[in-house]
Specification:
The protein is 5% helix and 44% strand. The chain has 185 residues and is mainly β. It has 2 domains: 34 residues, no CATH class; 123 residues, Porin. The strands form 2 sheets. It has an 8-stranded antiparallel beta barrel with strand order 3-4-5-6-7-8-9-10. Strands 1-2 form a two-stranded antiparallel sheet. β1 and β2 form a beta hairpin. The protein starts with a strand and ends with a strand.
Length: 185
């Protein structure tokens, strides 16, 4: 069984006696693994000759950058006029912070950390084509901080995207933007 990424769709292919040339997928290398094309090469449709954002050398690529969060908005339906939310400190989770991400080129797995106004948190996700998505979880689950999602676009020289975060009760909403650049690590 083989998982093949085509654009942003993942296709599951079962080996039915056909060779990899017949199925249209990449041929396994001498080690039996399917070759991994860098994120930049996946975006362009052609392999890249230089080291790229996903670590063409096979080593994980490291990215660092910053984010800025602001209060998010919640639309309450007209039929819920009498509904009230807990009082929220308007400064919680608002401000600047840092993000560090590591992308494993073999598995396309993303791990990382978020520090600062919305942190400390850990990131876990994956890259598919030029799209990166990750869950933002609390480093200490009982600290009642913000958690949510990170969505981004990966290019050869940067990763840029958005954070959507909330408290567990949904009363505190924060949105943010970020930009990361490759770290020579």
């Amino acid at each position: 069984m083989k998982l093949v990424f085509v654009g942003s769709l993942a296709l599951l292919s079962l080996a039915c006696g056909r060779s990899s040339q017949e199925s249209g997928s990449a041929a396994p290398s001498a080690s039996g693994a399917v070759p991994v094309v860098s994120v930049a090469a996946a975006n362009s449709g052609a392999p890249s000759a230089s080291a790229s954002s996903a670590g063409a050398s096979g080593a994980p690529s490291h990215w660092k950058g910053s984010y800025k969060t602001t209060p998010g908005a919640l639309a309450v339906p007209a039929g819920w006029k009498g509904t009230t939310m807990p009082t929220v400190d308007p400064t919680v989770g608002v401000g600047d912070g840092t993000i560090e991400i590591v992308i494993d080129p073999a598995t396309r797995r993303v791990t990382g950390t978020l520090a600062g106004a919305a942190g400390p948190a850990v990131l876990e996700g994956s890259v598919s084509g030029a799209e990166l998505s990750a869950a933002v979880r609390r480093q200490t689950p009982t600290d009642k901080g913000l958690a949510g999602t990170l969505l981004a676009t990966v290019s050869a020289d940067k990763i840029a995207g958005t954070l959507t975060l909330s408290s567990a009760d949904g009363a505190t909403l924060r949105t943010g933007t970020f930009t990361l650049t490759a770290d020579a690590h």
